[in-house]
Amino acid sequence: MFDKLKENPAVGKLIAQYDHLPKRDQQALTVLLVALVIAVIYFAIWRPATEFHAAAEASRENAEELLAWMSANRQGIQSLAQSSARGTGNNSQITDGRALMSTVTRSAGESGLSLNRFEPSGDSAIRVWLEDVPFQSVASWIERLNDEFGVVVEQASFDRQDSPGIVTARLTLSI
Length: 175
Hints:
The structure is a single chain. By secondary structure, the protein is an alpha+beta fold. It has six helices and four strands, in the order H-H-H-H-H-E-E-H-E-E. The chain has two domains: 9-86, no CATH class; 97-174, 2-Layer Sandwich (Gyrase A, domain 2). Helix content is 62%, strand content 18%. Strand 3 and strand 4 (166-174) form a beta hairpin. One of its GO terms (biological process) is protein secretion by the type II secretion system. Keywords: Cell inner membrane, Cell membrane, Membrane, Protein transport, Transmembrane, Transmembrane helix, Transport. It comes from Marinobacter zhejiangensis.
């Protein structure tokens, strides 16, 4: 294989130039070539592989933390799923968006939750934002809204916070 490579005219010319260099220059060029090969191996192979490994390890740890959080809050999640499976309550006294907004804000205060922001969404829905609240309290509040007033969760987004069981929630509630 090296014989075929040496037969290449361009490679032969380079070998001839190398042979005409002084002994010290040949040694310096050899050291430079070895250093270049080591740098290519490090920056093109080793470093990307270790960075990928570190990213995969961090992703696995995040998944384990999420699983632990979900396991710790299993009961609240299941009760929320059961309440939405039951459908709307038949005892709804809410007839329009204003009554819905009033009911949602009043019941949130009664449940010990503070709405950071809320806004109407169409004629019969409201969007609410809660920050740094216990997931269990939010789940209980949503279940109460459904059971007592027939309020349904159209959309829900929960982001966990640093403290266990604490979430930031964005909900769209409707009648």
